[in-house]
Amino acid sequence: xxxxxxxxxxxxxxxxxxxxxxxxxxxxxxxxxxxxxxxxxxxxxxxxxxxxxxxxxxxxxxxxxxxxxxxxxxxxxxxxxxxxxxxxxxxxxxxxxxxxxxxxxxxxxxxxxxxxxxxxxxxxxxxxxxxxxxxxxxxxxxxxxxxxxxxxxxxxxxxxxxxxxxxxxxxxxxxxxxxxxxxxxxxxxxxxxxxxxxxxxxxxxxxxxxxxxxxxxxxxxxxxxxxxxxxxxxxxxxxxx
Length: 241
Hints:
The chain is of the alpha/beta class.
């Protein structure tokens, strides 16, 4: 699944006329970059949720011929968790990959989705997150998201910032976590908290680079770094902003 329904409030005024997933990074829309990752991982079908300026996103998706796309248009904005919960019938009770449409990443030696698939163990995991060291992730604040144990378990409850890792868009999740939350509108955070409480929240570290595009300034910076050939890799000595 690709989450593409958000309003991109921090990207205004740009997102008043164009939805955030359709802005280009490196000459390609962020939505297409996410779909490209799925195609490279030999995934044949994707569900994309839409809400803000949905007609534009849906018209754009009609151009793709290399992957089957199912549209899940929301009558109201359901947030990240609610948006996924709304699409569960398409996954037939099986674990699936979910991506954000506004957080492009570059792969290292092993593609991020391949790292996720190789590490996934449904016997011990309910959620597996693709993580990046906070100090090496561009476009993020220095506060971070999670801590990562040697055995791959992830946690954050009671851990004050700065936290050493950030989530960079991709995760493998079990559908029953979303189905067990009765609310219609809720965040992915509720699912992660539930998995953490049962010690079934895990992570794997990305070996490439990333650039979160949250603001117009982030969008400009992401493209400027690519044009300059500097890329998105961050030296350990350069703190996240």
